[in-house]
User: Which sequence fits this backbone?
């Protein structure tokens, strides 16, 4: 056994190839390992993820919000390490399947397809339909200076899209347009998304939200009500809202939290789990479910 012991008992020196850790270092390594294990389990429960990549604070600005939502949904059909849309494990997605998959009538699909291809987001090739612009990728990505990434969870995005009627797809698009403003650790919309101290975060108000997406401030309450009605089924069998509007005395102090089961850009999802109170189970209409009614 002496040949695997890190200390030379005759000299008291650490053998070559070994490194000793303090109790504090061992505890940090243990915590990191546990975080990695739990994060891997979390990712698996949500069906894996697609990376949404961006450098600028403004994304998807040249297309309509409903087209944005439909592109994000289609990205969940990318296989690992490829850029060609599939409708099955070994089947390339056809245009007819794409329309059926998106749940659109011919006229709505034609508008989507024309806009997505005209602006280079979607391209028909001899090998199938591929994404342009470099926004979406499934699999390992290279570290490029200034490139930011957000995990978009496959099961949740599909459940969200399939439970949202086409008339409300634009609201999903609004949220995806604001991804660059989602805080990297706390999933709250803010002006300083890379700030890790939640006490230093400068939140985006509902008025700011309206300004960013080109929505009239006078219709802010309608916007909030629309988002409160957009839900998706979770693995528990219940539904959750896509985002939550939280404020104390007035709307000027409001914080808009995005459900981390939809997307998350941080390194430790357990930090956003603390906000589970904001994403309580609800019914298909977005009405919160009381514990006694379960």
Assistant:
């Amino acid at each position: 056994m002496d040949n695997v012991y890190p200390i030379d008992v005759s000299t008291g020196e650490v053998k070559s190839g070994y490194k000793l850790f303090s109790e504090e270092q061992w505890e940090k390594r243990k915590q990191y390992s546990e975080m990695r294990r739990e994060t891997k389990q979390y990712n698996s429960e949500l069906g894996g993820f697609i990376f949404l990549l961006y450098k600028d604070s403004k994304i998807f600005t040249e297309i309509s919000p409903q087209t944005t939502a439909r592109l994000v949904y289609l990205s969940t059909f990318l296989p690992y390490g490829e850029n060609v849309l599939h409708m099955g494990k070994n089947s390339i997605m056809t245009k007819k399947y794409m329309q059926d998959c998106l749940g659109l009538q011919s006229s709505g699909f034609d508008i989507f397809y024309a806009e997505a291809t005209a602006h280079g987001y979607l391209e028909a090739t001899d090998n199938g339909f591929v994404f342009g612009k470099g926004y979406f990728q499934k699999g390992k990505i290279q570290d490029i200076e200034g490139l930011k990434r957000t995990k978009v969870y496959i099961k949740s995005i599909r459940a969200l899209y399939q439970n949202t009627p086409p008339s409300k797809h634009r609201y999903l698009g609004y949220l995806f347009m604001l991804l660059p403003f989602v805080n990297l650790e706390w999933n709250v919309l803010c002006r300083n998304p890379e700030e890790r101290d939640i006490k230093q975060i400068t939140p985006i108000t509902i008025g700011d939200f309206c300004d960013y997406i080109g929505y009239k401030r006078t219709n802010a309450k309608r916007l909030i009500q629309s988002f409160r009605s957009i839900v998706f089924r979770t693995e528990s069998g219940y539904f959750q809202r896509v985002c939550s509007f939280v404020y104390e005395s007035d709307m000027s102090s409001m914080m808009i939290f995005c459900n981390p089961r939809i997307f998350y850009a941080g390194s430790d999802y357990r930090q956003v789990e603390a906000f589970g109170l904001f994403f309580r189970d609800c019914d298909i209409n977005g009405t919160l479910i009381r514990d006694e009614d379960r």
